[in-house]
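Example 9 (inverse folding). The structure is encoded as follows.
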């Protein structure tokens, strides 16, 4: 096998997708959906009656998981929409760097330092508790190649 082909195989990922299709009528409030390319939590949805062209329409309102921005979409109930694969993980806070990145440790001992301190009240709360030497667990939400700290709780050992 040539070196060019060999290099292609070494850099591949597992092939796992960031989203999966789901019929619009199967979506539920408080579930997740992709609207305008953003991972959103469904906060409101309503279904209209079947029209003269034969499709009931579902009106979705979602809040972006990472920015909090509101998005709306209308989709025929029989069509598919993308649903993001959303993962939550708890990490112990080890350190906060001068440039705003968090040093986090998973319960397996794996370290990571590629997540920024969140903006706003949550970020200020984390920084304040860290400076007061509180032992914290941070909940990180991950979807569609984005990650962000969304919650904090005391670490009960």
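The amino acid assigned to each position is listed next.
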């Amino acid at each position: 096998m040539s070196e060019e082909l060999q290099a292609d195989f070494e850099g591949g990922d597992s092939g796992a997708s960031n989203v999966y299709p789901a019929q619009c009528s199967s979506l539920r409030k408080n579930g997740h959906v992709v609207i305008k390319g953003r991972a959103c939590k469904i906060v409101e949805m309503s279904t209209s009656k079947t029209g003269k062209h034969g499709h009931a329409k579902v009106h979705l309102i979602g809040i972006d998981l990472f920015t909090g921005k509101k998005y709306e979409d209308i989709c025929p109930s029989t069509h598919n929409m993308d649903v993001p694969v959303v993962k939550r993980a708890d990490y112990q806070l080890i350190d906060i760097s001068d440039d705003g990145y968090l040093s986090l440790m998973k319960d397996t001992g794996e370290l990571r330092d590629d997540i920024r301190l969140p903006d706003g009240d949550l970020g200020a709360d984390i920084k304040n508790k860290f400076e007061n030497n509180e032992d914290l667990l941070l909940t990180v939400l991950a979807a569609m190649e984005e990650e962000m700290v969304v919650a904090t709780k005391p670490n009960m050992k």
